[in-house]
Amino acid sequence: MEKYQLLRTPIPSIKVDDSACDVDDLAKCGGVQVSVPGTDSWAALVQRAVDSEWTGIEALAGFDGTVAEAVRSNYAAYGQEVADTLMSVRTWDTQEDAQRTFASLDARLGEGTSRLMEQLAGPSAGDGGSGQPAATEGALRYEVLDVDFLFVQGNLTRPIVDDDLAALLGVEKRTRVPLRRVAEAVGP
Questions:
Q1: Integer distance in angstroms from the first to the last C-alpha of the chain?
Q2: Which of 68, 95, 94 is nearest to 82 (CA)?
Q3: What are the chain's domains?
Q4: Average pLDDT, stretch 27-40?
Q5: Which pick of 140, 148, 167, 183 has the fewest CB atoms within 10 Å?
């Protein structure tokens, strides 16, 4: 049995906008905007991307956790990272008690870090009448509600530039290979 089976039914929580070739659309032609709840499985998103021929995260198939954890930590492996396909992150700012959306650059994704890892400095003054317990020092400031990605469509990877991935796949650097082959080689 294949590790990555073609998904025949859509995942209800994922919203896909594949109209990127419309005349008035600002996305790259051939791009697919995908909105995913932060609580969804990262592995399920990678599988859906591979099955749907959305390039850019296939080499991140070996990671577990949620989409929120992937973005917050900027998962990276074999020359790919979450930041490569990230458009925006909609969050709940627990310090300000308000929704806040960060564009990709504003999320400050770096190697193993991001603005979304910011912690509260200290306990809040109380629950502000919300009925919720006061936030405590060390708690994450931003709860990731949903994430928008922009994927380029295609069934082949970008040219492989990572030495370890090229060796794992048994190909020369700069070779393009099917997305599924990469995901199966690096996945659990």
A1: 15
A2: 68
A3: 29-122+134-186 (3.30.465.10)
A4: 83
A5: 167
